[in-house]
Amino acid sequence: MTLEQFVGAALMLLFLADIFLTVLYARAGTGLLAPYCTRAVWALLRSCAKLFGRRRGTLLSLAGPLIVVSLIGFWALGLAVAAALVIQPELGTGVRPSSGNSSTDFITALLVAGNSLSIVGGGDYAPHTSATRILFLINSLIGASVLSLVLSYLVQVYSALRERNALALTIDLMTGGTGDAAAMLARLMPDGDADDATSELGNLVQSLAATKEAHHFYPLLFYFRFEEPRYAVSRFTFVLLDLITLTETGLDSHRYRTLVKSAPVSALRQAAFMLLETLDRNFPSADHYTADPSATWRSRQTYVAATKTLERAGIALQSDGIERYIVGRSKWEPLAQRVASSLGYTMDEIDGRYVRSEPESTVLRSH
Fold it and tell me: How far is the C-alpha of 131 from the C-alpha of 2, rounded, in Å?
């Protein structure tokens, strides 16, 4: 084996290991080459999106599909180059055309390698020794296996994306399209009746847990961003965390003790926070988060507006919940803001009751 063939074999093993870790091992943060490829494409699109101004979301919405195509092309090119390095020294001897002279340049080797990896095959060049026949057989098996694995992986990714969007739309509809956690809580407790709220939240726990695990298994989901904020992970997790915080700090602890202390309420908080952590830990290009000095004032104004919404729905409230709400919200809001910024969303797109930072204004943004 020549040095060129040794390098080609090592490169082939490297790309196969990368495909194994990305497709079969399927854990966020793994992969040898794929993370760098996907992050490079995302960084390029994010830089270009700045030129589009308010239309940046249109370009960023193409990130997911473009990254999928780029990753498949990256793997295909890498395997072809690796196979070409192994085949080139055999051109003219172990690998020859059916007629005419044999070219020995790298482009010819790359063409032969692509044909040997393809399940279709074709071309004039064919193996003429036992070693090259085995090499072509191995290449064809690698090509067929990688193709089937990647296609299966993409089906799973888009299936998980559909389920994530269904969850996001469900939560948005439960808020009446406002993205307001208080409106959602009022709808869950009509006339102050919390009998059905626990079961409804329990249904959301299952979908949210599945979405969290999907992002852990399929890192490509990170890059699928939609123009409509209702489908943003940062938005529906924000709504859920705000709803849970309102439930635990705002509702009358005696009248609604069963709901406040229920397992779905606790599970929703943990699952939503874990999903945000997964994105924050593994998604690239996160902007540095700077603490907002007006966050306490904003939380206070949001709580006041929320209590008015709940009171109109006939829901009994705590008299001293505002301070606990502010503390509770401060534990997860910076994380939600950081994830939203990474995906190119502004907080007024994520927070249904976003209040501008001017303390003198007490007018809440209403949808």
Answer: 14
Q: Provide the pLDDT for residue 227.
A: 86
For residue 192, report the phi and psi dihedrals to the nearest 5 degrees: 80, 10
Q: How far apart are CA 262 and CA 268, in angstroms?
A: 10
Report d(CA 233, CA 221) in Å as an integer: 10
pLDDT of 361 reads 43
Helix axes 263-282, 197-217, angle to 10 degrees: 20
Number of other CB atoms surrounding residue 210 within 10 Å: 14
For residue 202, pLDDT over 70 is answered with: yes
345: alpha, beta or left, given left = phi > 0 and alpha = psi -120 to 50?
A: beta
Question: In terms of residues, how long is the chain?
Answer: 367
What is the value of pTM for the model shown? 0.86
- The 3-class SS string of the chain reads CCHHHHHHHHHHHHHHHHHHHHHHHCCCCCCCCHHHHHHHHHHHHHHHHHHHHHHHHHHHCCHHHHHHHHHHHHHHHHHHHHHHHHHHHHECCCEEECCCCCCCCHHHHHHHHHHHHCCCCCCCEEECCHHHHHHHHHHHHHHHHHHHHHHHHHHHHHHHHHHHHHHHHHHHHHCCCCCCHHHHHHHHCHHHCCCCHHHHHHHHHHHHHHHHHHHHHCHHHHHCCCCCHHHCHHHHHHHHHHHHHHHHHHECCCCCHHHHCCHHHHHHHHHHHHHHHHHHHHCCCCCCCCCCCCHHHHHHHHHHHHHHHHHHCCCCECCCCHHHHHHHHHCCHHHHHHHHHHCCCCHHHHCCCCCCCCCCCCCCCCC
